[in-house]
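Residues determine shape. Take a concrete instance:
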Amino acid sequence: MCPARGAAPPRSRTISPARGAASTSAESVGKALPVGAVAAPPIIDGVSRVGLVLGGGGITGAAFHFGALISLRMATDWNPADAAVVVGTSSGAMLAALVRSDRLSLDALIGDVHGADELVWELRRRIYRRTRPAGVRRWMRHGLLPGIRRPGIGIAVGSPARYTTDGIADWVRETVGDAAEHWPVAPTTIVAYEVEGRRRVAFGTEGSPDVDLATAVAASAAVPVVFEPVEIEGRHYVDGGVGSGTNADLLLGSPEPLDLVIVVAPMAAQAAREDAPFYEGYLSRLGGAALEDELQQLRAAWPGVDVIVLRPDPEVLTASRSNPLDPSAALPCFLATLRSMRATLAGPEVWPLLEKHFASTRRHRSWLARLRPGGA
């Protein structure tokens, strides 16, 4: 394992699983440095050690990530690429790849398209690549039959699907270049769910399959029923959100205790949108409960750690739901997130923590009035 440059040698630590999620055999995040891998981010004087958790949430979840992280950087001048540890799940895995390769920008989201309609077409072309559904026996053995005995989302695990995540893997390769063929030097974890073992797997940790970044992202984003499972070393993997939408407890594999944890959680909203169907609130409560359990584990291990959770507000939910996998909702969700973050980042629960942990934020105090609703 190769920790971030300047970090102390890692200590072996058993990672506690999230509630309801199977355990992982990993003990620490990060892998040995391969030839040609991207450089580790430097440890910056005056800036705390930050753990960044990027949760799942479909296409609109990715748009929420873009809006939240870009707003955070504008407000603090902190580059998410400098995070000590990054954990990405499902759509958050794609953002983790962009963050670690320092390619998080509007170009990564919009590219060369002109207009909203062209953006929708481009997203659909990249994400939804058709395939011939297969694997009925696999699904019956590892998803359907266990799901009948124990009802839940696991019943869909391994099911045949109309689309493949090959397009997502290609998108990662086109966007981050050679970095997609290696694993980042700095501790990075991409979470997927193994069909055969019915367990969470944290790519990038000791004992996990040896995969490149693009393949790990494709596996983590393979939403059951929609996308075919991704085969790696004879095993099949689907969306890491099957066990938990955030998997924040995997930060416990950090080589050193963290000072601040930032969680971007598209599927853990605390307030529902108007006229939302009942299942939206249920899914948000489920995601929120899993996240809270994970954060309790972090606080128990690191009593002094501060936590910031960025969640979608009702305006963002209105733009992103009821179908988080709809490409036409990406741009409205992104714009709504930018508006939402004005109030969130300037709020009394968030801004003091940003000032405390980011030295650069102290130079941005004049931004506070502009960030707050009604500011100039």
Summary: The longest strand covers residues 188-194. The chain has one domain: 50-369.
